[in-house]
Amino acid sequence: MREKAYNMSKRTFWSFSNLCTFFVILFLFLPLFMVTAYSFNSSKSMIWESFSIRWYVELFTKSEALWRAVGNSVLIAITSSAVATVLGTTVAIGLKWYDFKLKKYIAIFTFLPMVLPEVIIGISMLIFFSAINLPLGKFSIFIAHTTFNLPFVYMLISARLDEFDFSTVEAARDLGATEKQTLFKVIIPSIMPGIASALLMSVTMSLEDFVITFFVSGPGSGTLPLYVYSSIRYGVSPVINALSFVMILATMVIAFIFRRFLKQVAASS
Asked: For residues 146 and 98, what is the distance between their CA atoms, to the nearest angstrom?
């Protein structure tokens, strides 16, 4: 029996689905391991010479332009994601809570920025900003990222609201709660995990966006993707590898904190 169970587990491990999963994970994470490894390479080339932290020293001491781009990316990502989360949550709750004639059409048009290619959105934003004489810079990138993130926030919040028991809203009204009290004390606390997920996804999408930012950015408003693009035209800099490893660690810490936060929210609700 033990031998039979061992053979079955062995066949299960080498099954087609497990092999596909293994190679997909390897394909996704192998580049990250390579970036991390070469960030500790003393040479600028892809040939390993010796272990060194010189690129981390250069990253934190001689990369003012790089950190300026990182600061622009973080500032735009946080502000645009916060505004997009508030607007998207409001739209999702409003479309779910109220009935009016144009409800279906608004829901359809909300998904339009999500299905359009980013090149089209970038060109459209550029033409619009030029038409209203809005200078290209951080504010134009902020508007573009907010617009781009809105449908994704709306989609996540709507999915969360589909699972929401609106009988609790009726119960709150029966107990004398106003619409404002029902919104902030019943609905929002119940969908808080969805709101937090939408916010985190918006921040991630804003940080990594290149195409739309490329069209609507101006002098002095370059973000990290634009800086990396301008740098790799002359070869991949080991400083970028060091920054990538720092960002990987920061992402892991944020994901861990976010996971703990969602567990606490789920436990309290």
From this structure: 24
Per the CB < 8 A criterion, the answer to whether 140 and 125 are in contact is yes
Residue 208: other Cβ atoms inside 10 A: 13
> Is residue 60 helix, strand or coil?
helix
- Quick one: pLDDT at residue 3? 54
What are residue 41's phi and psi, to 5 degrees? Answer: -90, 130
For residue 267, the model assigns a pLDDT of 66
Report the predicted TM-score, pTM, of the whole model to 2 decimal places.
0.80
Q: Note whether 86 and 153 are within 8 A (CB).
A: no
Query: Which parts of the chain register pLDDT below 70?
Result: 1-14, 233-236, 262, 265-269
Name the β-bridge partners of 202: none
pLDDT of residue 87: 92
Q: Nearest CA to 156 among 101, 204, 93, 103?
A: 93
Cα separations (Å) of 34 from 30, 48, 223, 225, 249?
6, 11, 24, 20, 15
For residue 76, give the 3-state DSSP assignment: helix
- Cβ-contact 40, 51 below 8 angstroms: yes
**What pLDDT does 129 receive?**
92
CB atoms within 10 A of CB 229: 14
Taking a C-beta distance cutoff of 8 angstroms, is the pair 247, 96 a contact?
no
Contact 97, 170 (CB under 8 A): no
Residue 235 neighbours by CB distance under 10 Å: 9
What is the three-state SS of 164-195? CCCHHHHHHHHCCCCHHHHHHHHHHHHCHHHH
From CA 269, how far away is CA 265, in angstroms rounded?
6
Give the total residue count for the chain. Answer: 269
